Every structure is written in structure tokens, then in C-alpha cells.
Fold each of these.
Amino acid sequence: MKNIAIVTGASSGIGRSFLKLIIKERGIFGGVPFDEVWAIARNSDKLNSVIDSLEDERVLPVVCDLSDPSNLAELEEQLASETPQVGLLVNCAGMGIKGAVEDQPAKAIEDTVDINCTALSKLTRICLPYMIEKDRFYSKANGPRIINIASSAGFLPQPGFAAYAASKSYVINFSRALAFELADYGICVTTVCPGPVNTEFQSKATGGASAEFTGFRQYVVADPDKLAEASLRASIQGRRMLIFGFSQKALHLASKIVPTDLILYIESRLMPVEHPQTITDTTTAEEPKEEDT
Ligand SMILES: NC(=O)c1ccc[n+]([C@@H]2O[C@H](COP(=O)([O-])OP(=O)(O)OC[C@H]3O[C@@H](n4cnc5c(N)ncnc54)[C@H](OP(=O)(O)O)[C@@H]3O)[C@@H](O)[C@H]2O)c1
């Protein structure tokens, strides 16, 4: 039976960094080196160019819109026909649109929940029959693994990024619960919570208005390669949670001990949410622009 890794969000940013590292992995995640790495994203040109640059024939493109249930069903069929062992699942695909809720197309909010929450949970469920082996109890050192990319945005509600922050709270809570469920099979689930990371995410989140993080976030921007490296290491060590970087650990602690309203009050003074002059009907609101780069 072939042992595969699946990486979503593989056409850019953190997902691409994961791909670069995973092809070097040998011998854990279900027992043998990966025979194939399924790299999932929507943009086939970008995905193929990432895969070409890796020069490893085990990496296969799977063009799939994870927010489309029929695409997920096709992926499920592909798994059913090939019946691989899934040694590693990295749920990395994600998106978010910044701005006041009344300033966003309803579709952007729908997509945020569909991709960040629904697709991540459904894909995990779809892969589990190919990870769980009833007759074989993996040890912490050699079992299959799931790495879910959440965000420190999920520690607290975030005015101006409300749907995204709430979706990442979902990812954190879903993944942490799953970690305890799957421990019974020796499958490790690692929830990764980075702060700002240097990828196309910020540009997409602002509709191309700003590729750089602003305010205090600009001083704590992480490198996607280092984040992916730390995440894989945490997964190999069997850790359930990785909060990446000192500033994000401090934020996590603050979110546990400081009243949430007080943090939100201070944040709203430092970074007030901009409200639109007029509120458009959701049917006429513009779709968020995504950069092609
Ligand atoms: N960058 C940050 O500051 C930051 C901080 C904390 C957490 N994160 C999280 O890290 C993860 C990766 O983000 P990133 O920073 O690497 O951003 P990115 O460079 O924008 O990458 C996002 C990836 O998700 C894929 N994707 C988006 N929608 C999809 C869909 N419907 N179906 C399939 N694939 C889809 C994109 O590929 P296609 O467009 O080709 O489909 C792309 O490969 C996300 O979950 C994000 O929330 C990012």
C-alpha cells in the first residue's frame, strides 16, 4: 500500500514551504517514506510551477476548489479508488478578508467559513479511513499525523477581521478535540498558531491594497519556511499545539488572563475599524479581489 502525504494550500505561502520539506522526509508518518505527495490548490498554473521547481516526481498536482462540495467528493473518490495510507495531512489552505462586516460581500464571509472550517473538517473526515488502522496501534513516534494551520487570530475575537478570527477559533477547537479523539489510534494532531507570516495572505486579505503588515504586526512577521520547519518538528515530536514565536505566545497568555473586552477596547483605540460611507446590498457588493501573483 502506498504511503502518501496530502498538503492543501500548496500553490503558495506556507503550503509551498511544507511541500519543500515533506519531500525530504524519510521513514516516519506511517512507516515508510512518502510514495506520493498530493499537492492541492485551485490555481493549476501556480501549483504546477511550484511542483516543477521541486523537481521531485512524487509530488502530484490535485487541482481542487475545497469550497466546492463536488470537488471534495471527487477527492474522496480518488482516495477510494487508490486506497493509499495517508501518513500526513496538512490542512493549510485558508483565506480571510479584512474590513468591517457590513463592508464585505456576503460571499466573502461564506468562503471564509467554507474554506477555513468546513473544508478542513470534511477533508480530515474523508482522510481518516486511510489513516486509522484498527489492527495496528501506532506509537507516538511512527503514526500518521495531521497538521492543521490555525492562527493566533483564533485566540480572540477580532473587530475588522471578525469572520476570519472566528473561523480560526473553530480550527483551534476542532483540532484540539480531534487530537484527543485520535490519540486512541496513535494519530497525532498538531494545531499550529502563527501570527503574521510573510506570504500573499495579507495582500489577498486587503484586496491587494497592502502586501505588508502594519502596526505592531510588522515587527513580528514570520518566515513561512521557518514556520513549516517548526510545524513538522512539532508534529514529529507528537506535540498537540505549536504557538509560533514569542509575541504570539504572549498574546495567547494575555487572551487567557486579561478580560477579552478590555483587550478589544484597547485594540479598537489603537486600530479603529473603518466603516464604509454607505452600506451596499450584499447582492451588489463587489467581490474581494485576489491577486494573481
Ligand atoms: N500569512 C499569514 O499571516 C498567516 C497567519 C496565520 C495563519 N495563516 C494561515 O496559513 C494558511 C496558509 O496561508 P498563507 O499565508 O500561506 O496564504 P497564501 O499564500 O494566500 O496561501 C493560501 C493557499 O490556500 C489555497 N486556497 C485558498 N482557497 C482555496 C480553495 N478554495 N481551495 C483550495 N485551495 C485554496 C491557495 O491556493 P489557490 O489560490 O491556488 O487555490 C493558496 O495555496 C491559511 O490557513 C492562513 O489562514 C496565515
Amino acid sequence: MPELPEVEVTRQSVAGQIVGGTIQSIHLGKPLRWPLQTDPLSLVGKTIVSVGRRGKYLLFHLDAGCLLVHLGMSGSLRFARQLPEAGPHDHFTLVTQQGSIRLHDPRRFGAVVYAPGVDHPPATQLLAGLGVEPLSPDFDQTRFVKAMRGKRTSVKQVLLAGKVVVGVGNIYASEVLYLAGIHPASRADRVALTRLRKLHAAIRLVLQEAVAAGGSTLRDFSAPDGSAGHFQTMTKVYGRAGLPCLACGQPVTRFLQGQRATYCCANCQRG
Ligand SMILES: [Zn+2]
């Protein structure tokens, strides 16, 4: 599933190519998770002025309105000067005079939704309840520690829920908790203060590293230019069950939390 780093890599890759482009046509495939919420013809003639991101939503700001794009479980965006004919899994294509963007999404949990602005419905509903952006200056250590201490569920579940901080998906949750020395099953409100401070720093560090590495290429994610990310080759615990912990040599363990795989070193990671 594309997580925040993959969405950010997509944003960085696409923005420089498509900003300034005026929409010439929109081509829809099969229905996605949510409908576009406007007549595709009403978008023709609008210009893309910037490409932002909030959580896992890409925000294509138009000179009037905004397109919110979510990659869902299996989506990827592709940009090219000229794209080939749409295939059976291509469900949204936006053509400008500078080139085209296409959403390829075999499982169709992704979506492209139009809103008159990011502070108007349906954008407000889609973006409601998202935690702070981990790579923004708003990700404050004191506020993060306070928010974590107010949660009684496991620290990993709090991270995955995305209400305290967005973007720490399943791979990254195992990684940041390993760096902070926190056992993933620990209750968030019982984790020592020093470790929560370490966790705050680890979240920013790991997500920055993942973006710099081009994200993780799992299943069918690749950047819009077709290049593969390589963060998955840099993980310290994720995907390393049975292999020695890089710090202490004890085998890395794998278990399920909320049906998602968790990796940790039971020797290095505590409450
Ligand atoms: Zn260890």
C-alpha cells in the first residue's frame, strides 16, 4: 500500500512536470472508491497551479478548485508527455498541453475527487481528523508526547491510526519503534518520556530517509517516472524475522497486531 513517503515521492516527481498545465480532457475508466463529484467537462480549461499533499492525499490545486487524489491500496500515478492508450486498470487520465497524468489502480480503492477548494466539502470531510504532518514544523515534540500519553492502546496502533501524526504506516511503524527502543505492543500512555522523545525524532528521520530513498517498492508502487524506490532494502527490522538484530544479535521477531505484521527486537525494545 502506498504510504506517505511514496505519496510524497509521487508529488515531487509530478509537480515539476504538470504545474502550469491547462486541462484539455479527462478520461475516466471504471468507478473508483468515490466518484469525481463533478462533470469531467467542467474541468476542461482549468490550470494546475500547484501540487500539495495532506496525509496520503495529493492535492492538485487548480486556478478554480482542487482535485484530491488518493492512491488507495494499489494505485500509482504516471506522468508522460504522451501516454499510451488506457489499459483495463487505468481509471483516470488528465491530459494537459504539457503532458498527462494517469491513475493506474488494479484494486480501485483509490479515488480522484473534485472540491471547490480544500476548505470546502468534500475536501473537508476527506481531510478531517488527520493528525499533524510529520515533516512539517507543526510536528512539535512536546505536543506529540502529550498526545501519545493520552492514548491507552498499543503504541503501534496509535501510530497507524494517524490521528496523532499522519504517515506512519505499517513498515515505518516497525522501523520508528525499533529506533526509539519501544516495544510495539506497549501501551502508549505507559511508554517512558525519554523513549517518546526518541520516537518523535525517529518518525521524522525515518520518513525523511524513505522519501530520499524514493519510497518503498512493495507490490506495484513505482514513482511516476517508473523508477523503483529502495527504502525496503534499508529497513532495520521490517521484513527481517529470524535475522539477527543489528544492535544486539538476537533474532528479530514477527507477530501480528490488528492483522498487520509487526517486527521488533524483544531484547532492545521495551515499554
Ligand atoms: Zn536487539
Amino acid sequence: MRIAIVGGGAAGFFAAINVKENYPEAYVVIFEKSSSVLSKLKISGGGRCNITNAAKSINELSKAYPRGEKALKKMFQRFSNVDAMEWFQKRGLPLTIQQDNCVFPVSQNSQSVIHCFLNLCEKLNIAIKLNSGVRSLQMQNDKFILGFQDGNRDSEEFDFVIVTTGGSPKPEGLDWLKKLGHEISTPVPSLFSLSIKDQKLNKLMGIVVEDVVLKIQSEKFSSNGALLITHWGISGPATLKLSSFAARFMNEKNYAFKLLVNWVGGRNDELIVQELWNISQNHQAKIMTNYRPFNLPTALWQSILDKCNISHSKLWGDCGKNDFNKIANSLSCDIYSVAGKTAFKEEYVTCGGVSLSSIDSKTLQSSFCKNLFFAGEVLDIDGITGGFNFQAAWTTAYIASFLGK
Ligand SMILES: Cc1cc2nc3c(=O)[nH]c(=O)nc-3n(C[C@H](O)[C@H](O)[C@H](O)COP(=O)(O)OP(=O)(O)OC[C@H]3O[C@@H](n4cnc5c(N)ncnc54)[C@H](O)[C@@H]3O)c2cc1C
């Protein structure tokens, strides 16, 4: 039995190792188009590799996937984040769970994950072929003929193929799979920062606001979490989450839309006014700039006062209803014009890929070609940051490695 894994990334290695453990007699080979394997995993999580997320339930875990939630919810019953952690630990890679549930190798170094995979491949006798980009796949008498990007190279014959080529930013990269009948959901980027040209905001660069709610004006998309203000706009978990939830919408709008920022954890005007009134009663003699409501960072609070045309030196006790309403409005619904996306040290994944409607999500087998399987980001599955994208790779690769059994 000859099994080809196309793509030497996270999903490819996980599929190869599991398939060989399931079918020890099989010849298993990983074809990688570039000159090195696992290059994305190496730089992942800032070089530390956020390998999964310790979300407490399958429900909570599935919610991290704007694309693929429903299908993954079922797949996680078979191989969850807990199973993934156990898998790695059993194979000699100790893991540690951070307070925010992100899971990393104890070594805090992605290289130890790579070592783990490469050692297992050696032990299990899995072949790894570099500079072996696959260009075509044909079926002939129940066998697959793999053609390579290097025109001089002979094609090779296999009984099973698992495609783990990762996200393809360009639709043409998926043409060879489309030709076989698979529906392709147009790839667009996900997980990016937003560019906002607003001098007053840009001046606040470096500030992290712990609990904001972001909303796209007149749309259903929203996110919450920490927000980082940068010199070109905004980044941080809340921004990345919004870029993931609204990846397709933002692409359609050419990354130009109105963003509503609630700086105070989604509190409404009424609650904010109440808090401001309490402060004015209890701290009458304090000047406004010195007593910050909701523990807002100083520079942000001062810029809100400027926006409301309120003097920094005004006393809290001299504030009236009109001031409170203006501040509440600026804190609950600060409107900005987004004018593009940027990449900033963060992960970047592709929304789109081989549509789940073209595969059997119980086995990850193609609906058009028997014995052809998919795993990882090549599928129309992607998650928010926090180890969820690797978890999708582990789960789909694990299921595909049973080859439909
Ligand atoms: C900077 C960065 C940091 C990230 N950090 C994290 C993180 O900490 N946690 C997390 O969960 N996710 C993270 N991600 C996302 C995560 O890396 C991906 O979701 C994951 O690598 C997907 O695995 P994959 O195997 O499907 O694809 P990939 O890892 O992209 O691997 C695909 C492989 O297939 C090869 N290939 C492509 N086409 C062909 C072909 N035709 N023939 C042969 N080979 C081919 C590619 O060269 C590549 O090596 C990060 C992403 C980036 C960019």
C-alpha cells in the first residue's frame, strides 16, 4: 500500500505519522514543494508554537472557528484538544498551559515540535521528499498518478493521497483540486491588523486597552478583548478576532468600512453615565485628567476629554449631564474609518479553500475521488488566534489518517 502526503506542514506530518501508526506496513511519503518542511510551524507563536488551546469543552473549542464550526464540532468528538495534548505528551513533548488557555511546548521553542515530528518520521520510516511540488493528480485504474511541478520528474503511483498543502492565498493554487470536481471557496486573508488613518488615534500607539468591543457599523460582526493601538491603526486580539469573523465581508468592502469602538467592555451609555455621576459625587475636588473612569489608560482618557471639548483641568464636581452624555457617547461608540489591512508579526491564515461540501466530513474523503483525503488549512476551515488553527490541523489530519475506515 503506497500513501502520499502532499505538503510537509503541520497537517502533513501529523497525517503521515498517524497513517503509519495505523498502517505500519504501508509505504508513506511526504512530498514538500519547498526546500524545508514545517517552516510555518517554526515561526508560529513567535517561535514558541502555540500548539493548541485548552478550551474546556468541545462547544467552546468549536466556537473559535468562523469557518468549519459545525463540522469540527463533530470531528472534535473523535480527536479533541485534550487528545492532541495527550498525543504530543505521550510522544515525548511536554506541554504547558498558559493562563489564557494557550498551550505551548514546555521548551517554549517550536523547534522541539519539529524534533518530535522528525524523530517520529525517522523511527517509523516515513520518507520525506523536499523540492517535490505536486502539480497534478489523476486517477487511473483505482490508482493515483501524482505529477510534479518539475516537468523532468517522473510521475509516481499511489493507492491513497492525503492533501495537506495549507492555505493558498491565490485561487489558482487550488486549480489542480478544482479540476477533480472539488468546489473551492475563494481564498481571502484572515487574522490581520486594521489600518486607521486618524492622527489622534495614531498618537496613542503602544497603548493596550484591556476590554474593548469592536463592531462593524450596520453589520452583525463584533468582537471583544484587548486592543493594541499602533502607529498605523489597531491590532491585538480583539482586532484579529474581528478580522477572522468578518474576513469575507472586509474583503468584499476592500477593507474600507466604519468601525465602532466601545472602549469600556461593551457598557451602554446609561451604565457609563451612572459611573461618571458616581465619580463626580465621590471625587468632586479631583481634576478630570487625574481620575480616570474604568481605569482607562491616561492618554486614551485625555484624548476622550479632548474629543468632548472638556478641559483636562476641570473638576469632576463641576461636570454636568451634558459632559457625562458626551463622554459616554465617546466611550461607547467611537467611530473610525478603516482604510485597509496590515500584517503585524501576527499569524495570518487563509479563509476559504476546498469546500466542506466537497468532502465527507466523517472521514475527510473527497466526494469525487475515492481514497483522496484532505487535512489542514487547505480545507475551508480556519480559526481565531490561540492555537486553534493547529488544533484544526491535528484533528483533520488524525481523522484523514484512518483512510476512510
Ligand atoms: C506567522 C504565523 C504564526 C502562526 N502561529 C500559529 C500558532 O501559534 N498557533 C496556531 O494554531 N496557528 C498558527 N498559525 C497558523 C498555522 O501555522 C497554520 O494554520 C498551519 O500551519 C496550517 O497547517 P497546514 O499543514 O495545513 O499548512 P502549512 O503549515 O502551511 O503547510 C503546508 C505545506 O505544504 C507545502 N505545499 C503547498 N503546496 C504544495 C504542493 N503543491 N506540493 C507539495 N507541497 C506543497 C507548503 O510548502 C507547506 O510546507 C500561524 C501562522 C503564521 C503565518
Amino acid sequence: MKKCIWCRQDENKTTFNKTAHIVPQALGGEQICENVCDKCNEFFGSHFQKFPSVETIIKEAFNISRIRFLIHFGEIGKNKILTKPTSHFFDIDIKKRKFELKLAYKLQKGYQEKLCRLLKKGIYKMFLEETERRNNNALDNQYDFIREFARYDLGDYPVFYYERTSAVILTPVELVKRPQFIIGGVGLKYLVNEPCFMEFEFLGHVFSIATTRYWAIAFDNYLAKSEKAKSGFFRGFIPLNRFNDFDFALKILDN
Ligand SMILES: [Zn+2]
């Protein structure tokens, strides 16, 4: 019997007819999380007042990076992965390599912070669904804080963004066409896998998130290990507070 990892309701109480993509389909995501009910699936895809949906924000935030990689791999144009890149939030000019947040959004007071909160919720949402797909354990109480935050807008949890020192980003074309997380401890030696934090690379970006609501106790220990593994590859990290805090346009590639 299916049970939703977000609202904990099972097939007796809710329906599971629609397909829940972990990474938005509009971003090329193909992996599915079976245990997301239709209501919760719809929630992540719905906008609220003048703010975009969690799904839209994930798509918008990472689409620019994906486009830059697709240009690099010659995958934009007729009969290619993407015919013509478009964006709701960004002005895109491929020839001029211009990818900028539209002025209308830049100027709204507090908008950057709101977009950032949605982005953080989206990153946690993808993490929990991916955890369910891989380990089938997303209903563990340990993850209640992610349900509260991503689904019910309660509390606030950190997303750390690691800034690279060089423009060398080894992202295989397959992971650009069909984006997935690369998780610490599996492939990349600069990613660490600690009990209270999870690091991952996604479309060329390295993030870490908390895997327990008590993350603060383990933070210093985590940071020491993480910084050691990243020396030479990354300058340091920033906690995401504003949408513009992360290099969504992969400007580092222009250097
Ligand atoms: Zn649900």
C-alpha cells in the first residue's frame, strides 16, 4: 500500500494517480518518486499568490546552468535536447552570453529572499523524494523537519552553497540531459558524507543541506571535514539567503 512521504496519508485516504518527478520534468528530470500523493504533487506544482511554485523555482534556478552546459555540448537548436531556451525570470541572450534576472524581479523589495526560501524548500523536497527512491525510508521521523519546511512552510533550514575556485566543472552530458544528484561518498572526492549533512552536486553546483533538525550541534565538526575535502577546489561556502547568492548563470565559466 502506498503512503505519501509528505502528508503521511495512504491509498485509503488519498489518490496516487499522477506521476511525481523528483527533478522537474521541465528541467529534463526523469526519476519518479512513487510515494507522493496527488494532492502533495499538486501542491509543489502550484503557485501561491504572486510567488511561483516550488517546481517552477527549481526549474528556473537551474535552467540557466543547464542551458550553459547544453550550449557547451552543442545540444541547443533544431532536433536537439532544447530547441529554444526560454525563461520566466531571466533575460537570456545566448550570443552575448547574457543571463540576468529580469529587472521587474530585481527591484521588488524582499522578493529575492522569498524566492530564495522557495528555492531552499525545493532543494529539500528533491532530497527527500530522492531519499525515498533510493532507500525507501523518507517516512522516518528524522525527516519530519523536511516535511514541515518544504510542504507546510514551517521553520527554516540551511542550504550552503560552495563557491568554486576554477571553471573546470566535470559534468557528464548524461547528467545535463537528464539531471540527477551526485551524492557525497559515491563519486566526487571533494564531497563528504557526514551524519548530519548531505552534500551533493547538481548541474555543476555544489550544495549541502541538513539531514536532521539538530544540525547546528554537528556543524563545526562537519565544516572542518568539508573544508579539508574541498581545499583547492572551492573558495568557501555561503549560506543561501537571497536568490542571487548562488551562481545560477555559472558566471565562473566566463573567467
Ligand atoms: Zn500527500
